[in-house]
Amino acid sequence: MTTAEPVLVRANGLTKHFGDFEAVRGIDVEVRRGEAFGFLGPNGAGKSSTMRMISCTSPRTGGELSVLGLDPNTQGPTIRARLGVVPQTDNLDTELTVRQNLQTYGRYFGLSRAQVREKAIELLEFAQLADRADHEVEPLSGGMKRRLTIARSLINDPDLLLLDEPTTGLDPQARHLLWDRLFRLKQSGVTLIITTHYMDEAEQLCDRLVVMDGGKIAAEGSPSELISRYSTREVLELRFAPGTQEAVVPSVVDLAERVEVLPDRLLLYTKDGEGALGAVHGRGVRPLSSLVRRSTLEDVFLHLTGRTLVD
């Protein structure tokens, strides 16, 4: 994906109000063909409201928005026919089998019976559900249902795939299997837009992302660019008994470029975590535990907003 690729989604000054509440407060976004683009932020940041405007299921309040070169306000049905949408909550038909969920959905897009039969076989293989094809949906695990929902969203070979919090509620094994399926889609050239509050998910899947908070965009770039711009190479975590950590700050504040105080620990942002830890011990500071790790998007969000992604 390069900047020469066509822009599939362009928003300028996009807003969404619900009465007096501003869910989206004038954001600018461009998503190009072939990239995986992310909206990273906590619940209530405005991610899902933005996604519903892009998917043409909620009209914008103000600003400009084009999707696939079209205006959602006047050409919504045309746009929706070319989209794949994975909602936050699975809305599968539990009275149908796994295969029937795909075939029935395909008919909504005008595919022939022969086409949906062939497409269903392909998508069942992709989702690793071929052995469950004629099983009922309800007994499936959460991860299987999520993979089926994603497979269903691909039945019309969409130009753009929208995934709203795709792995919320899944166990780690199911999340990683789903990431593998999404990575394969990205490698095949499918354009993805993903909302998530999982920083590891954003780092794994997104070529580029925006950090959202309070309906606004706080930063934009690739995961590595954002970490380089707003954080240090390493972070030293020092855990203390709750309520005792703030008294330690004067003893360590000069050992890091930045110190964040959380309810049960201090975060020291530094180029050399092990060196900082040695200096901490040298000053007689004895935390309950310590950890040196690399910086993540969670640290970027904390720097930009003063709080963690999941409060």
TrEMBL record:
Origin organism is Umezawaea endophytica
The UniProt family comment states: Belongs to the ABC transporter superfamily.
Bilayer topology term: Peripheral membrane protein
Which PANTHER family has this protein been placed in? ABC TRANSPORTER ATP-BINDING PROTEIN, ABC TRANSPORTER ATP-BINDING PROTEIN NATA
Transferase: present as a keyword of the record?
A: no
Domain (ABC transporter) ranges = 9-239
List, alphabetically, the Gene3D superfamilies matched: P-loop containing nucleotide triphosphate hydrolases
Q: Which SUPFAM superfamilies match?
A: P-loop containing nucleoside triphosphate hydrolases
Single GO MF annotation: ATP binding
Which InterPro entries does the annotation name? AAA+_ATPase, ABC_transporter-like_ATP-bd, ABC_transporter-like_CS, ABC_transporter_ATP-binding, P-loop_NTPase
Q: Which UniProt keywords apply?
A: Antibiotic resistance, ATP-binding, Cell membrane, Membrane, Nucleotide-binding, Translocase, Transport
Q: Where in the cell is it found?
A: Cell membrane
**Name recorded for this polypeptide:** ATP-binding cassette domain-containing protein
Say if the entry is tagged with keyword Translocase. yes
Q: Which GO terms describe its biological process?
A: response to antibiotic
Which Gene Ontology CC terms are recorded?
A: plasma membrane
